[in-house]
DNA sequence: ATTTGTGCAAATCGTTTGCATCTGA
DNA sequence: TCAGATGCAAACGATTTGCACAAAT
């Protein structure tokens, strides 16, 4: 389903990007890059991207997916999204940004950049500079939860 | 080093707190509560608290530390701080507040509530309510990092 | 030909769980 | 007494690592 020898324009572009950042444009890196950057913003977990890649007929191992995700992150092509201590998500959006997160369902929703604005921000601690600002708005279903009557403790 | 039978005023207070929230004031819960709440605000990881407890001569297992941390969190005595996907931190400060986080050193610093103000916030997705808002300002040392000269990738 | 990347499986890390034993009210 | 807690060790899921093999320049 995929022509292994010929690179289309998109691949050429990606290949150049990778080279420019010191990453050899290997088959799997190109394929993953294509999945990641080919269709607008996305957040993916390693396992997820791994499945996608395999379904797309790309021969790649989970370890390589992890490696690649981290290399891309180091190269500034991805950023890591931390919403819970379970697993890591990687976001094709690199700047500061925001998310809704429902821990009961695990879903992460993007919040458009301009939907949050700060009226006041602290200066970084002495000797530090701000790298980026993450905002996670934790939400839950608006339903039951009448009131927990003390004594709940599993 | 610790009198097992007599409870000082602090312990009585903590014991009452726990009871009021449906948690039996057991030896280890009291000891952990004392470590957690005895000296102002703190963020601790489970492993950390575990070590502290043992050094304080408290006989407690790591599993119980985890249990207790979660029970306290459920009871509203602690809040979980998510800054990285590695491990969980628990914060004795329960109200809304924010954090600086330096991933290179692992340090977490509190940001007072009033140091951040929002000029605009999004409405929660339909059917959801906002549980709480987490803000993590990621920082790093303001020094070296002159510019990564391409080609770094190890 | 060299150097760098990849795949696999085993190893690690933080955290959770199952179950027998103990403890507090 | 007896429900609820605890300790231990095994189980777990996500991620990392070591090393032989393969691919890119």
Describe the protein in words.
Two copies of one chain form a homodimer. Chain A has 154 residues and is an alpha+beta fold. Chain A has a domain at 40-139: Orthogonal Bundle (Arc Repressor Mutant, subunit A). Chain A is 30% helix and 25% strand. In chain A, the strands form two sheets. Chain A has a three-stranded antiparallel β-sheet. In chain A, strands 5-4-7 form a three-stranded mixed β-sheet, with no helix packed on it. In chain A, a hairpin with a 7-residue loop joins strand 2 (79-81) and strand 3 (89-91). In chain A, helix 3 (46-55) crosses helix 4 (62-74). The longest helix of chain A has 13 residues, at 62-74. Chains A and B meet through strand 4, strand 6 and strand 7 of A and strand 6 and strand 7 of B. Strand 7 (128-141) of chain A pairs antiparallel with strand 7 (128-141) of chain B, so a sheet runs across the interface. The structure holds a DNA duplex (25 and 25 nucleotides).
What is the CATH H-level superfamily of one domain in chain A? Winged helix-like DNA-binding domain superfamily/Winged helix DNA-binding domain
Please tell me how large the radius of gyration of chain A is.
19 Å
Largest sheet data of chain A: 3 strands, antiparallel
Number of helices of chain A: 4
Q: In the CATH hierarchy, what is the architecture of one domain in chain A at level 2?
A: Orthogonal Bundle
Distance between the terminal alpha carbons of chain A, to the nearest Å?
Answer: 52 Å
């Amino acid at each position: 389903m995929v022509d292994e020898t010929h690179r289309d324009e998109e691949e050429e572009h990606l290949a150049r990007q990778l080279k420019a950042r010191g990453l050899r444009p290997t088959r799997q890196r190109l394929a993953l890059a294509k999945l990641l950057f080919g269709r607008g913003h996305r957040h993916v977990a390693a396992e997820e991207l791994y499945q996608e890649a395999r379904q797309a007929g790309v021969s790649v191992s989970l370890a390589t997916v992890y490696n690649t995700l981290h290399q891309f992150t180091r190269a500034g092509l991805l950023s890591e999204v931390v919403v819970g201590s379970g697993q890591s998500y990687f976001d094709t959006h690199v700047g500061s940004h925001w998310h809704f997160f429902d821990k009961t369902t695990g879903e992460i929703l993007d919040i458009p950049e301009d939907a949050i604005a700060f009226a006041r921000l602290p200066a970084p601690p002495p000797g530090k500079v701000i790298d980026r600002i993450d905002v996670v708005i934790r939400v839950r279903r608006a339903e039951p939860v009448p009131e927990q009557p003390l004594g709940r403790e599993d």
